[in-house]
Protein: Squalene-hopene cyclase
Organism: Nitrosococcus halophilus
Amino acid sequence: MTRALRQAPESAGAVDIAAASPATEALPQGIHRTELSAAITAARDALLKLQHADGHWCFVLEADGTIPAEYILWTHFTGELEPEIERKLAARLRAKQADHGGWPLYEGGDLDISCSVKVYYALKLAGDDPSAPHMVRAREAILARGGAAQSNVFTRLALAMFAQIPWRGVPFIPVEIMLLPSWFPFHLNKVSYWSRTVMVPLSILYSLKGQAQNPRDVHIQELFVTPPEQERHYFPIRSRLNKVLLYVERTARLLEPLIPSALRRHAMKKAETWFTARLNGEDGLGGIFPAMVNAHEALILMGYGPDHPLRVQAKKAIQNLLVDEGDSAYCQPCLSPVWDTGLASLALQETEGGHTTAPVIRALDWLKERQILEQPGDWQKQHPHLKGGGWAFQYNNSYYPDLDDTAVVAWAMDQAAAPEHYGESIQRACDWLCGMQSRNGGFAAFDSDNTYYYLNEIPFADHGALLDPPTADVSARCVALLGRLNQPQYAQSLKRTLDYLRQEQESNGSWFGRWGTNYIYGTWSVLTALEQAGFDPQESFIRKAVDWLKQVQRSDGGWGEDNYSYFDSSLAGRYQESTPVHTAWALLALMAAGEADSESVKQGIIYLLQTQQGDGLWDHPAFNAPGFPRVFYLKYHGYDKFFPLWALARYRNHLNRQC
């Protein structure tokens, strides 16, 4: 593909938008050139102020109350209490209690029993009086929904380690899973990376029947409708296959006392070797909070002393996730610097009319240094001859490069039109991505062909997120990159992915959003990718998506989408109010489909202009992504900062081209 060099001189810094924008006397009614330019300038300057000196961005990644509660539980497991942090975390958790008395998985959501049980326990560990009004309300709400026995597997595992329920109330996770052959129905390589990194240290905790120190001897028996020892319904049947697998699991559990001690020691050593090799320094095992906590606790149980370097690093990795707001604090599930930097770069490139200015060059250079080229990774089990070339989501997570991040970063580098500087990085990224394509033509986040769907029926997998199958949104990002490159060696891979995306389109015209909420995110991902691949926007399946987006536009000109759409697809593209992020995604999708002059886009632009804050940015409390649909949700604080800017700039550029 031949493109004009669009890189601005480094000394140019940010382009003056007003100067770059020709006079546009014929702007649509209700939108004024000066207002549009001023809004873009303010948002761009605000975003640039948040850039770190070395060129990268890293915005807060907020989760529901589960993670801060687990932080408190973790300190009481280890006995290494952190009173000041505990006080702040508890203040935050109290403030997030909903009107229904419990805690939801996202802002405005229904009570989630697992989250509420963990938060209640964390508050009681932190010293809250169970007779205090907020604790009474929480307890009554939890009991009204069946009590703590109705919690999910991860919550019950925590309760077992705090001796609140018997071990029979949790799934059988013996450390001998490390010894299973690859042909066995269950094998570590058949589950997602996040499942592997969580399960391996957890299997050690299970096999050693780890017990929390619980120095204040706090219990929550008042949260059970039936005394835990008498409870017989810890495992509700989810399907016929689940019933069979539960029977097999219960039978296998009876055989655990017969496991030879030498075999257990061998399995224990293999598990220890596996997870300590992947501890990832102060960035933590897998770069995700649950795996980090399990790893730290497993190190303690295996006799690593408080001053052992691995234990010190593992603890620091968890503490690095804290966000201290003064009077309160919360804990992030992970950090997102590569994702934030890649997307911010794309938004700024659009802002500067396609130029890549000095701040973005610093960002791309920072990213270039973090490409994972030669380091070992779990993905090599399936692709031993494939060269590395991906990027992780976090600062460091070399075992687990992320296909979505890789496509975004390489896209921004290609847009810089500096092949002498980024060409090799882009090539390695594309080669690696194509090597990671799944057999159905799609792309998953971290693995290929991770589609052993029967494993979602094992008792451990009541969260339904054990696997990492291909998804439309990640596949679309790969299409965006491969499509804009348009190189013959990627043509077959690109064609297969496009076929996959056509098959994944929903009957209403949208696409499912696995990693962003939800159908609006998925549809933005695909329509943007199809534009990069040079598709005619008049193709019928694209028109169908456009029609759907217009149908779900709200009367105020914006768009919104409820996280409950993961439970009820009739809520696709619908929410009680508009949000800047959903509006930006919808606008970018429509403009990618040739709708920049439509009334829908005009109204969406007006919505963004009217909701911009005094600091030049946007902010909305709604969570905008699932970690795991139906189970765990996130608010990417960066999304409010670069997606609306990206949409406004795209619109301004379209107007400029008409002049």
